[in-house]
Amino acid sequence: MLGIPESVMPHVRRFGFSGVIAVAVVVVMIFGINPITVLTGQVAEPLPHTTLTALEAIAAGEDEPEALVDAVSREANGFWERAFRSAAVHYPPVALKMVPTKAELGCGMAGSDVGTFYCPDDSTVYVDMATYADLVASFPAEGHKAEGYLIGLAYGHHVQAALDQFEALESLDAAERAVREQQLGAQAACYSGAWTKWAGLEILLDDPAIVRAIDSVSTGRDVTTAPSRAPIPRALTPPSAAFRAHGYGLGYAIPAAGSCRMENIGQPI
Question: pTM (2 decimals)?
């Protein structure tokens, strides 16, 4: 009548409901077993990875790089959804697409070595898994965290697109545009820094090896400068290492969108 499995009733009759619950709690504490499994016989679905648990699972050989991509995507997207909601601003949907090689990249980028990037035209973050694998092969200890940064950077570009940050570029002269593009790069790094702190990671750009891993991935400028294509955000004039680190540090110090306002980003250094 109470929906209690017959296998559990003898224990209830012997120890009472409170006794069975106490035993379940002890089992959880000692063995890490879900009490729902003990009481109902039903196995609960495992919780999805966080960025930290995905990194641990990959390091232990218990999961694949796709787990990290999924975790970073879920956490970064969730972080910005909540930030926009709290500011009563619409957050447009964004998709993430993992492709096996650069030949399958969208946004007119097929064949480019860009790796991971955001496409404003279809609001999609593309992750070239072959480039990701090459990154890890070249930087075994740092490659996964570097990829996490790049995915966070791509979501930062989505935030910029949602706030129409790229629209003003067309009206600027060459010198003004170069400055603005560097500021946008530092701002995207700031957004990635905010996600990094929220995800519980260390200050990634403080590690020279991680910085080298990040910088080893092409911007894709070889393709995006073709006259028929508008450039993707990662192919704009990049900020200097110092300016990027400045922006990243702002977001990491206070992980909120307000930390990354242009007046805080300042002029290129």
Answer: 0.81
